[in-house]
Write a structure and sequence with these properties.
Blueprint: E1 3-8, H1 33-39, H2 53-65, E2 76-78, E3 84-88, H3 97-109, E4 116-120, H4 125-128, H5 144-171, E5 179-181, E6 184-187, E7 192-195, H6 196-204, H7 232-237, E8 252-258, E9 265-270, H8 272-275, E10 280-286, E11 289-294, H9 297-306, E12 308-312, H10 321-331, E13 338-343, H11 346-351, E14 355-363, E15 375-381, E16 384-389, H12 394-405, E17 412-416, H13 430-438, E18 446-449, H14 452-457, E19 465-473, E20 479-488, H15 491-495, E21 521-527, H16 543-561, H17 566-573, H18 579-591, E22 606-616, E23 619-629, E24 635-645, H19 652-672, E25 677-678, E26 681-682, E27 700-706, H20 718-735
Parallel strand pairs: 3-4, 8-18, 16-17, 20-21, 24-27
Antiparallel strand pairs: 1-27, 2-3, 5-6, 6-7, 8-11, 9-12, 10-11, 13-21, 14-19, 15-16, 15-18, 19-20, 22-23, 23-24, 25-26
Helix pairs in contact: 3-5, 5-6, 12-13, 16-20, 19-20
């Protein structure tokens, strides 16, 4: 077993950064069945900024005179100047995917990584749809590497094989005598060589090979090596462009306010105070929102503050979190639950159990609170609509613009940008629809930016859940059966109704029984929507983020009842030789699980360790969290040790960074993450009452990656899912307080 490890002390972390992309070529590869299959495992991001009409004419003439590039598939374009352009089939939101996918292409194409440049792919699900996401053109679900692992390598290998064949034909030698390396094809027996750019014309005339050989692992020069991120320079020098950075000639700015009550509408607005503000040009409105348009953002903001708005709050005005929580609990006894898994005779095991244990858990609404607030720039004209935005789902953004503008899809142009945080928020297109609808009476381009308050209070929230678990135990405290009922909103029913079958939302129950070999088990789901107008969505994972907290806390309860060590108790439930067992054994070793924690330095403080395991997103993870709880009940997470098996690793640096970042994200949720409603409106408004982890509070994170020859798994979300349970269990070890609701609040000693 081979292991790599990193340690990230809190004070030394730097933020991830993004790479400015090159404009996409006007040339489009011919779609073949093979290209369709190859494109099936990939995603796409949008299109480049449109050129002015005069520029378009000049570019068209230049394109007619220039030699055609070699485009063997939907992803690779090689120019006669040896340039290699990768049509990027993912969106970069800090996860390092631009570097990883470039590595896959460069590895098989046999070109230096430094030679690969990137271009946005157009919205085109036929070529860039992701079968792991129902064919949708999205970036999410921790499946970027999983979906790209083979298609990107096949794309590179196909281009390489055609270039080698072209050189062999030119020299009149067998292709087997030729080799590709560093962007050249050589013939060692004669010493001849040709650059890729010299072979593009002849290679383009060759038939596409039906099969290509991929490089064996032992010949990898890039894959598996720690490669510095290609997007660092753009963040350091400020050239990286996000949606909020868009600047267009004559652009206006808009500040937006939507009805604060979910499902409410706009009753009336007195525009006069806003129009009196210097720089304000107009006030526009739709059914549930109003915007002030101005020559700069400060004037727009001041104008919005001056507006006198009356809202129709509607039926949602009486809804509170306490009511919603009670509603969820009432659904736990429903008789029409959808079955997700049934194994063995649970009822028989319960009937003869030496003892039983049951618990009800609650998980709150959560907001995304990405660093870059929601924004969208729109130029709506009678004959077309341009939208500049940062989106994880360009086709959803296009369709939202179609709905709001009443223009056909071919008149909508989506210009995608780097994302200053996504976490699932930018899988949604509500802000695109709102912006286009508000822009219908605005002349020229206008940029809509939601304030932080608007961003948090009108987020697409991760659902609230109520979970009930019951276990049958034998005389030694070992479980003989378990039941788990999940009650909560169905995201899939809203965004992909066809994925909900027989009432079951598979995402809501993912990881609902953990990775354990239960003798008998039952897992089911009850859909319950919170209130009209409140849509729920993905949040750096959904099902596993709440299910891991629930199942790992419950297993910890069972270990406590049986007076057994939490790690030993879990190991007894994990199959011998399983990948989950391997990461649990490793994290116990590396965390010093069997050694006492040093005493707390502050009088009245208590310390504890907690463990959690997770099998989800195609990866296997175990974490141990160390916490200190002071006399007032304040929790500090001191250290998190993580062992992960995510299959073959493309870039170890990315894996370590992703695990570290997702753990910090999850610690925030464990300690403070909670959106509450009163009077049908979100009570939190900014980081003072929707707190996030500060640099000085960030724990040390030690990451150990097991070497694996299995196919790659996902890594963006598992860390967030597992750490919440590990922290909750550590607090119990320190204080005896068992958190059955989040965030964890043990109270004073």
């Amino acid at each position: 077993m081979s292991i790599t490890k990193t340690t990230q002390p809190a004070a030394s972390r730097s933020s991830p950064c993004e790479l400015p992309l090159q404009p996409e070529s006007a040339a489009t590869p011919t779609l073949t069945r093979r290209l369709l299959l190859m494109a099936g495992g990939s995603l796409a991001l949008g299109v480049a900024l449109p050129a002015r009409s005069a520029d378009r004419h000049s570019e068209a003439l230049a394109a007619m005179k220039a030699p055609a590039p070699f485009e063997p598939n939907a992803f690779i374009r090689i120019g006669t100047d040896d340039s290699v352009t990768l049509t990027m089939a993912r969106v970069e939101m800090g996860q390092g995917i631009y570097t990883a996918l470039s590595m896959l292409i460069a590895e098989e194409l046999e070109v230096p990584l430094s030679r690969v440049t990137l271009a946005h792919a157009p919205p085109d699900a036929a070529r860039y749809g992701n079968p792991r996401a129902g064919g949708g053109q999205i970036t999410g679900g921790s499946n970027s590497i999983m979906g790209a692992w083979e298609p990107m390598r096949v794309a590179g290998a196909t281009a390489r094989a055609m270039l080698v064949s072209a050189a062999a034909q030119e020299w009149g030698v067998p292709a087997a005598e030729c080799q590709a390396r560093e962007g050249r094809v050589s013939h060692p027996p004669s010493g001849r060589q040709l650059r890729y750019g010299q072979l593009t014309r002849s290679a383009a005339r060759l038939p596409m090979p039906q099969q290509v050989a991929l490089k064996p692992q032992h010949l990898f020069r890039l894959i598996g090596k720690p490669i510095p991120r290609l997007d660092v320079a753009g963040k350091v020098n400020g050239s990286a462009t996000y949606g909020i950075d868009v600047r267009l000639p004559g652009m206006l700015y808009a500040a937006v306010a939507a009805c604060p009550v979910f499902g409410g509408t706009l009753a009336s607005v007195d525009e006069a105070p806003a129009l009196a503000v210097s720089g304000v040009r107009q006030v526009v409105r739709i059914s549930n929102a109003v915007a002030v348009i101005a020559v700069h953002s400060w004037a727009a903001k001041q104008g919005l503050a001056a507006l006198k708005i009356e809202w129709n709050n509607g039926a949602g005005a009486g809804v509170s979190t306490a009511q919603l929580r009670q509603d969820l609990e009432q659904q736990l006894d429903r008789q029409d639950a959808a079955s997700a898994l049934s194994k063995g005779d649970v009822q028989a095991a319960l009937a003869v159990a030496a003892s039983r244990h049951s618990a009800v858990y609650h998980s709150p609404f959560l907001a995304h609170a990405a660093m870059e607030p929601v924004n969208c720039t729109v130029h709506l004209k009678p004959d077309g609509c341009d939208v500049w935005v940062g989106t994880q789902a360009p086709i959803r953004a296009r369709d939202a613009a179609v709905k709001a503008s009443a223009l056909p899809a071919d008149k909508i142009r989506i210009h995608n940008h780097l994302l200053g945080g996504g976490f699932g928020r930018r899988l949604e297109a509500d802000y695109v629809e709102q912006s286009v609808a508000l822009a219908r009476t605005v002349q020229g381009p206008v940029q809509f930016i939601w304030s932080r308050e608007e961003d948090i209070q009108h987020d697409i929230l991760r659902p609230m859940y109520a979970d009930r678990l019951s276990a049958a135990l034998d005389a030694q405290g070992r479980p003989t059966a378990i039941t788990h009922r999940v009650v909560g909103s169905s995201i899939l029913a809203r965004v992909a109704p066809g994925a909900v079958r027989n009432g079951l939302d598979g995402d809501a129950v993912e990881a609902g029984l953990g990775p354990y070999a239960w003798p008998a088990a039952q897992l089911d789901y009850v859909r319950h929507e919170p209130m009209p107008g409140l849509a729920t969505g993905w949040w750096r994972g959904v099902g596993p983020t709440h299910n891991c907290f629930v199942i790992e806390s419950f297993v910890d309860e069972l270990a406590t009842l049986s007076r057994q060590d939490p790690v030993a108790y879990r190991l007894a439930l994990l199959p011998a030789g399983s990948r989950t067992r391997a990461v649990l054994e490793l994290v116990a070793l590396k965390s010093g699980w069997d050694t006492p924690l040093p005493a707390a330095k502050t009088k009245g403080s208590r310390r504890g360790r907690g463990v959690a395991v997770l099998s989800a997103f195609g990866s296997f993870m175990a974490q141990v969290a160390e916490v200190t709880v002071d006399a007032a009940g304040e929790i500090r997470v001191d250290r998190v040790v993580c062992a992960v098996d995510c299959g073959m690793v493309v870039n170890p640096d990315t894996v370590h960074a992703q695990v570290d970042g997702s753990i910090q994200f999850g610690v925030t949720a464990a300690l403070w993450g909670e959106i509450t409603l009163q009077g049908g409106r979100v009570e939190q408004s900014n980081f003072h009452d929707y707190r996030v982890l500060r640099l000085s509070e960030a724990p040390q994170v030690d990451v150990y990656v097991l070497r694996s020859d299995e196919a790659p798994g996902g890594i963006g979300e598992p860390g967030t899912s597992a750490v919440i349970a590990a922290v909750a269990n550590a607090v119990h070890a320190a204080t005896g307080y068992r958190a059955r609701s989040l965030p964890v609040r043990p109270g004073s000693a």
